[in-house]
Amino acid sequence: MIIKFGARARALIFVLLFLSLLLVLAHFRRRDEPRLEPLDSVTVPVAPGNGPLPSVKPAPDSATNITDKQWSSVWSRVPCVGLRGLNFDEENDDTLRESVIEGLDYPSPFVGSHDTVGLSQTWMTAAARYGPYGWGDDQAAYDGKKAPWNETDWAKLQNQCIYYNAHGFHDAAIIQPFARRFRMREPGEEIKSPVIEPQAANYVPRTAIVLRAWEGYNYTAEDLVNLRATVAETALRFGGEYTVYILVHVKDTGRNIFSSDENYRRAVEDLVPPEFWGMAVLFDETLLQSWYPEIKTHGATYQIMQPLQLFAHFYPKFDFYWQLELDVRFTGHAGRYLTALSDFAREQPRKQAIERSTWYYMPEFHGGYSDLLAAVNASLEGKGGLGWGMRIQDFEPIGPKPPVEDPLDDNFEWGVGDEADFIALTPCAYMPSLEHWVWRNWQQGLKAGTKTPGWMCQPAMGRASRTLLLAVHHAQAVQGLAMHSEATLSSFALWHGLKLVVPPQPIYQDPQWPHDKMNELFNGPGAIETHRMQGMEGMARGDVIYRQTDYEYITTTSASFWYTSDFPNRIYDAWLGRVGSQDGSSSRGVPYVLWRSGDGKVYAPNMMLHPVKTNQNRPLDSSGDSPWLVIAGVAVSLLGLSAAGFWWWKRSSRSRYSALRTEEVG
C-alpha cells in the first residue's frame, strides 16, 4: 500500500516541521553574551581567623518577644493554650529555642535586608525549630515532652484562642469544622462592587492564612511539623489575630462535595490528616465554573486566585488573607516573619509604590531603603508615578483619591500607616515589556486588550485585603475580566488605586554570582536616577526578569526564594541532617548560609524558603508548565521529521520503480 501525500498534506508537514524547530531553537538558542561564571564557593569557618570559637547563646527577649506594637493601645493580648494543654507563657516545650551566635558574621543576602524589614538575626537548628511540634520525638535523643498528636485538634485550639481574645476583634467569628461554607452561585444572584470600609479604630484587624493543598498531596512528617508550627506561631501566638485554614482542591468532581454534608465530610477525612480536619475548606472546579462562567479556564496555572476570591466572599470576617503554598518553609518564627512583612508594608507611602515594587533592593548598591526611595523619586522628577490617578476603561477605581492634586505637593506622607492591599513576596515586572514570559499577553475581557498595563509578581502568593479580593471577584463574576494568576492581584491593585508593597525580604544565592552583575541583571544597567525609559520611568528593568529564558541558569538553581530554584531543597536537606559531614562548602555538604558548630549541629539563619518539596505528588495544574512547551516542540519536531522523511522516501521509491517499470515495458 502506497500512501500519497497531496500538496496540502506536504505543506502541512513542512509548516509543522518549521514551527517545531522554532520552538526547540527558541528554548535552546545560544545567548548573546557569554555565560556568567559564579564566584568561588564560600565556606563558613568554624572560627573566624585565629580568634575565639563562635559562641551559641539564647536570643535576647528583644529578638523573640511577641509585642502588641500598634495595637497595644486598644488590645491586651491574652495568652492562648498550647498543644500540650498549658498556655504559651508557662509551657517551655511549646517555645522555640532561638539563638544568637557571637563571633560569627550573619550571612548577607544577595537581595533584601533583615534590618530593613525588621527581622531578627537569629539562628536555629532543625531540632530547636521543629522539636516542639514533634520532629524527632520518635528518637531516643528527643528531650522534649511528647504531645498526643493523634488527639490534637488544631481548629479547636484556634477557636479557644479567638474566644479568649474576642474583646480585641470587631467580629470574633470562629472556625466551623466541616461546614460547607462554599456553595454554587444562584441564577441571577447579584454581586455588588465592593467599597472600602475604614478600619475600626478600637479593633485589631484579623488575617486568614490560607494554605493551598490539593487532592493527592502526600503529607509527610515534615509537612505535619510545618503545619503545626504555622498554626502555633501565628494563630495561637498572636492571640487569634491570625486564623489558619487549609484550602483543598478536590480534583475528582465525582466526589460531589457540594451535594451533601456526608460527601463533604468524607472528602475532608480522605484528603487531610486528622489533626487538621477542622481547618479544611474544600472546593472543586465546578464551584469555580459556577461563579465565573465567562472566564475561559479555572485551572491553577491561569486562575489560582479564584478560590481565594471565593474564600474572601464566604469568609467575610477577615480583613486580610495570606495565600501560601505548602512548600513554603520558615527557618525562624513564622508569625514574626509574616508580621514583620505587614508592619513594613504599613509604613510605606503610596506615592511611587508601583515603581519601587519593581526593584530588587541591594543595600551595598542602593544604600538605605530611604535612599532607594529618593533615587526612584529623582528618576520620576518628583511625580506620582503610575499609582497617582491612573485609570483604565473597564471600571471606576475604588481606591482612595490622593489628598493633593499635584504629587509634587506630597512629601511621601500619603498612605503611611495604611495597611497594604497587596503584599507581594518578590518584586513585580511590567508585563508589556516582558519578552519571554509565556503568559504576558494572556488576558480576557479588557477593552484595551494587551495594551492595558499589567504587573506580574511571581510566585502567586502574598497577602491581599478583602477589598482587593472582592474587587477581583466582582470583575470576574460580573464583567468576565481576567489576568493570569501571577498578574491578577497586582494588576487589579494598580487599576483600582490600591496600595501595593513588596517588602525587601532577605534572599540568598548559591552558587553566588558577582554582586555588581546581579544588580545589573536584576535591576538594569545604570544608576536608579537614570531609569527614565518611556513607559517605565523609575522602574527596574533587568534582563533576568524581562528576558527570563536567557538567564534560567541563574534563576532556576540559585535563589533561596524563587519558584523554580533547587537551592531551598539543598538548604533544607542540609539543615535536617540529610547531607553528610563534608567540609562545609556550598558545593559539597552544608551550604554557606548555614553554620555547623563543632559538635555537628547545623544552624540556619532567619529566612523564608520556597519551594521545599517533601514529596513527589506535585499538582498537575501547577504553574510550572513552560517545560511542556519544549517537550511538545520536540514531539512535533520528531513527527514532522518522520512524516517528511516518509514522504521523501516514497517519492524517491516511486521514481526508481517507475524507471524500472518503463525499462521492463520497453
UniProtKB/TrEMBL annotation:
Spans traversing the lipid bilayer: 628-649
Keyword Phosphoprotein: no
Residue segments, region Disordered: 43-65
Coiled coil: none
Keyword Membrane: yes
Keywords on record: Membrane, Signal, Transmembrane, Transmembrane helix
Signal peptide from the UniProt entry: 1-26
Matching Pfam families: DUF3405
InterPro entries in UniProt: DUF3405
Name assigned to this protein: Uncharacterized protein
Native species: Parathielavia appendiculata
